[in-house]
Design brief:
Elements lengths: L2 H16 L2 H7 L7 E5 L4 E6 L2 E3 L3 E6 L7 E4 L7 E5 L5 E6 L8 E8 L5 E9 L16 H5 L6 H28 L1
Parallel strand pairs: 3-9
Antiparallel strand pairs: 1-2, 2-4, 4-7, 5-6, 5-8, 6-7, 8-9
Amino acid sequence: MRSSHLTLCAGAALAAVLVPAPAALAAVPAVPAPVTVTNNEENRNVTVTPSTIAAGGEVDLRVHICNGKKAVGTSEAFSSPAYFNPAADGGLFAEARIRSDAQGRDYGIHVKCEDGDGSASGNVTVVHHRTEPTAPVRAGGGGTALAAESDGPGTSHTLIGLGLAAAAAIAIAGRSARRRKRL
């Protein structure tokens, strides 16, 4: 078993034990599972991961056609054609970027071998996840961003400030009095 797979399983088990199910479902967005769509004519399939994605995202495509050579995948959802190359598992692999202006709906994917030896099809679902800012950016000179969030100086700050101002006034008055005595 690969270490990344083992780590993922251990993390999922730990999360299942520590986080109650309703809280886990509310806090963590669902990770779409890969979908396999079969083309009935040639019994060829396209695996799209993730099968549901936001506009502007990137999907991984896998097929087992073309005898492990090259293929091209097209879709209205893609910003450009997806060019498949041999993968380690013997199939073909490509990455495709979803257009940033793609509408939220299902799009068909068509993969054709470059030598004309086969084809496959599948689907990808595009969703819109618009994020609106909810608060200003917490930026500034180090800790000043955190200080800006407070309600202002409290009573202790006010008393310290008044004490320092009084001490400064007394020092200035004392110095002025000494200068007058010298004259």
